[in-house]
Amino acid sequence: xxxxxxxxxxxxxxxxxxxxAREIATKELAPRVAEAEERAEFxxxxxxxxxxxxxxxxxxxEEHGGGGQPYEVYLQVVEEIATAWPSVGVGTSxxxxxxxxxxxxxxxxxxxxxxxxxxxxxxxxxxxxxEPQAGSDVSGxxxxxxxxxxxxxxxxxxxxxxxGSCADYYIxxxxxxxxxxxxxxxxxxxxxxxGMSFGAPEKKMGLACDVTTQVLLxxxxxxxxxxxxxEGRGMQVALSALDAGRLGIAAVATGIAQAALAYAxxxxxxxxxxxxxxxxxxxxxxLLADMAAEVERARASYLHAARLKDxxxxxxxxxxxxxxxxxxxxxxxTTDAIQVLGxxxxxxxxxxxxxxxxxxxxxxxEGTNQVQRMVIGRxxxx
Length: 382
Fold this sequence. Notes:
single chain; four-stranded antiparallel β-sheet; 15% strand; globular
């Protein structure tokens, strides 16, 4: 079919990894997605499967159990996962974001202790940055961590936390000083920490299996040994990791758009009206062509940013461009896929309405697309 993704990969090993990811996505994830999303089940076994297959560790160094793969390969694996099951694609990206914080900022001793469990899939992570009044504005964080002997005592509320109540550890950002930008610090908080509890899962428009809750901290005690990096560097830690996280979401959004395109093309080739397939109509062909162009642009934008990252070059602006381009594309392509299916596209009997609902939030999390435009504009004028 003309919707098969034609990937240009750097090595034979990367080709094999993408084939493995596609096989798991097609055979293990895709058959479950509709029913699981309807029930809003957390797919813990899916993450364990991906961990055992080595797909949660790809962009990390081999000495800590990583796959030693370029970011461009890892992101294409995320896209394959998200094409089958967007919620699991998001969870995979969030987990990698948490491991990136530890890999880039923790001590060698911490890395040696924590990363192997994170990268094997034994531990699944959550990223606790947003708060009810502090979403894109990280400097507005109010959760406070007060030093008390060998511990920090933490009080506050985190909001919109993917994998909330289901994770094995939480990367927590809390205020250790009054300065808006230099008063934040990052901590690793294992599940089961005294004083940490969770709100009920949010009832969301889409991504139901990406369980999202509040994380409630009521004098939670965190050993000082679980501070990640230096006290007061939390803002730098959060923002540097978010560049990589935005590429993960761009790959997820591209996967959503790819799935919608593939379904729409298949439907247009088979659905007959007036005695011939609707795909025989030029108007329909032009609509599908525009959808395909959107998907290809989205993929090209995240791959360009990833290749800059792999080359050790600045990629922050390109990460924002990729996130903006891919998530806006996902919204347009899923909207058009519903149009291709007509009335059927508006029903839950067909997957495109779910993909449409899943696509919407990609324009919001990891920094809204309005914030991405601010980041891009400021970088251009710097």
